[in-house]
Please model this.
Amino acid sequence: METKTTRPYDRLGASRYLEEKHSIKHNVATLAGKAVRGDGPAFFLIGRKPFYWAEDLDDYAASITSKKVRSTSELRDHKASVKRATSAGAAIS
Model:
């Protein structure tokens, strides 16, 4: 099992971390909703309280952030290639 060197964040701390480090504004309610739907950052429970590791928050931020582009057409082309690859069952790198 991998040992973590930092303390985990509760939902409020995770919300602040995402905003301060990644400029992603997800409030506590948004993170809670994403946990229910399964489309948010990975978390674990201590009792009934959810906690997040910084590494998982960073991975989540990377997963919802586009690559750097110089034009909006590059984003359209990138989204189309991702959609084609995922619908074909291919892994995205």
Observations:
- The mean pLDDT is 86.
- The helical segments are 11-22, 28-37, 54-64, 72-87.
